[in-house]
UniProtKB/TrEMBL annotation:
Keyword DNA damage listed: no
Stored Gene3D superfamilies: Tachylectin 2
GO MF annotation: an example: carbohydrate binding
Record has GTP-binding as a keyword: no
Protein name according to UniProt: Beta-propeller repeat TECPR
InterPro entries noted in UniProt: Beta-propeller_rpt_TECPR (IPR006624), Tectonin_beta-prop (IPR051513)
Domain of life, source organism: Bacteria
Family: Belongs to the tectonin family.
Amino acid sequence: MSDWKHIDGSLTRIAVGSRTNVWGVNAAGAIYRYTNNDSNPWINIPGSLSDIGAAADGTVWGVNAAHQVFRYTGDQDTNNWKQLNGSLVRISVGSRTNVWGVDPAGAVYRYSNSDANPANPWINIPGTLSDIGAAADGTVWGVNSANQIYRYTGDRDANNWKGLNGSLKAIDVGSRTSVWGCDPADAIYHYSYCDTSPANPWINIPGSLSDIGVGADGTVWGVNAAGAIYRYTGDLPG
């Protein structure tokens, strides 16, 4: 993986808000935040999660193995996590006001931006997905259990989702022009920014990853099937 720098540690899921806001969870559910120092890269955050989402504005949400939903409050109080009603297996955070998730049945939910109705802080969005990525600019993509790929269009038309060619099992979005994913064989793909070549709107990036995280500033990290952690360096001078 010549375009990727190996970072010490072991994670199964990773989320990137920006170059300085990278979070992950390991196989045991332990939570880690990147220290911004490759020589001692991770600090453990109390709690236990199975998936996590992080935004450039510092917002962090997570879900645990029991599908409970939490928002990180450790930068505001000593409790670290505030639980919210709901049941999700996947979560993605573009910003404080753009949080999306998928429940165990594949139903899609968007955070209502209000804890004032604690019984149900989620809005159901028609569709069925297995993984989802949300960006600060409002861009949302998802993949379903058949590895089909969709871009959210519900803010522009009544169809909600536009299907794109390709096959991905994991997807993340940093912005409208920064969409990355991993296919069922762990091959890595970057969106070409172009739907006019519908036969293949994806560019293969050398390497092998099982999960990927993309920041609003274009930062990309990933983890492979063995839990090894990598940061993308292919956008840097050779």
